Amino acid sequence: MHYDKERNKREKKKANVERPSLVDSRSGFCKENSTFYSKRNPISLPASPSLDVTTFISCQIHRGITAFIDATTGQRLSFSDLWRAVDRVAEWLYSEVGLRRGDVILILSPNSFYIPIVCLAVMSLGAVVTTANTLSTAGEISKQIADSKPTLAFTTAQLAHKLPAGISIVLTEEEHVEPTGGVRVVGVLFEMMKKEPSGQRVRDRVNQEDTAVMLYSSGTTGASKGVISSHRNLTSYTRPDKNRFVPDLKTFEISFIYMTNIQLKLMELGLICTVPMFHTFGLLMFAMATVAIGLTVVILRRFELNDLLAAVEKYRATALILAPPVLVVMTNEADIIKEKCDLSSLKKVTCGGAPLSKEVTEGFLKKYPTVHVLQAYALTESNGGGAYMDMVDSRRYGTVGTLTPDVEARIVDPNTGRLLGTNQTGELWLKGPSISKGYFKNQEATSETFNLEGWLKTGDLCNIDDDGFLYVVDRLKELIKYIGYQVAPAELEALLITHRDILDAAVIPFPDKEAGQYPMAYVTRKLGSNLSEKQVIDFISKQVAPYKKIRKVAFINSIPKTASGKILRKDLIKLPSSKL
């Protein structure tokens, strides 16, 4: 890896040509077209139209030795073994399953270094990866399978019972444990990784615009939608920003992670995977981006605070990515934590997925004064494109940072559609190479969210200040954020009104100190019904994943609605704090 001054000059010149001339250097705002431009150096993308993201990642030059470490077992996987396994799994899928370009493979698994192996193998064939939440119910997973129609599923024996009967599966664990539920086991991943490739496979030509992943994200309508992202989208995210590797600064930057030059040399200083790999950020960051730049990832199979803290101490981790509620717990239990664990190596915590208040930040810094707290912003639909903070910005409370490289933004008045300027609040629109292609088999939702010019309407009320820093003010969308998970109120409302004693219902976010928010239901009972709060909670808990459970119920004579029938959630949101 080296610093190419001439290439950096060419990229800057290219950026200057593509951008309008009247871009304010301080804010990045252009008055000519009311567009904000990233102030970060542009990142060059491959010119060839035929390139899959796996091949792109494999061609990156780095000095990494260990790719992944299993925090539970201590098992290590080197980069050479990783790529050997990717090639062997790809050959098996091609020759034994007949997997071809455009076919879909489902992954239902807790965090494991088997996930990157499967993802990279599948995408190298031009096939599509889709993931399912391990906490989802069998019914929820069946709906996703019916929509995406996967050829094969990779899962564990413990989770196989959630898959519908008849689907073919590959078990990811080393020991072949026969699962129940009527699924058909066609292989064991660990055994595939041992087979020598024949070398006779003919690779399909994969276009950068072909779909690489399809990750499901709940929308405000309640229907889970498959977000389709291309190889080019993922390449733009995993592309190492070598323009930022400046010898004088000893800094290397990619997306949300900032690692010192010393860390790049001492690759055993692991970055801990604290988020689920079925989620867009976990998958793109810990299964792809870290592989591209040669960082070691310590994988927690599932998030548990004590395990995380033990891993920080054992592997001397310097940076973590956490949801805001975890910061609250670490703050409240700081004295106990410091007695049990040595966290002196920790220098930075980046938060995303939910708003982080100034009060929470200041409380955390009082307990951990040597740690910088940063924020970042992105969506499933943006594949990491959005904004993030640098270390020098850590005292700017409330901001999620400046725009990521090559991203453009607009602030749009949601009522009039008028384009706004600095320090004005409106809906945030994003545009750039990482923005996804739309929603799978859902043209209506795609048209609502992505306009014809390629702008992604985020549904978030934001503003950008005179220095180009983005602030998330509120959400136009109605999603509830429970410990970083998204919960669609409409999905729960649709289930509630199927109860024989419920006439009408509305679900709102209820503030919680630890979880951030949780779903609360307002229920109108049918005449003569004695339906209780516990009965409502139990009715929903049997049908949804744990993070979607309703945790509070209030009974009301009628649900407030507009003349057109839309629920007035803002009126209901005012009630809990004042009357409950």
UniProtKB/TrEMBL annotation:
SUPFAM superfamilies in the record: Acetyl-CoA synthetase-like
Pfam family, one: AMP-binding_C
GO molecular function: CoA-ligase activity
GO cellular component assignments: peroxisome
Keywords for this protein: Ligase, Magnesium, Membrane, Transmembrane, Transmembrane helix
Domain AMP-binding enzyme C-terminal per the UniProt entry, residue ranges: 491-566
Record CDD domains: 4CL
Transmembrane segments: 277-300
Composition bias type Basic and acidic residues, residue spans: 1-17
Origin: domain of life: Eukaryota
Sequence segments annotated as region (Disordered): 1-20
Domain AMP-dependent synthetase/ligase as annotated: residue spans: 62-440
Family that this chain belongs to: Belongs to the ATP-dependent AMP-binding enzyme family.
PANTHER family: (RAPE) HYPOTHETICAL PROTEIN, LONG-CHAIN-FATTY-ACID--COA LIGASE
Protein name: (rape) hypothetical protein
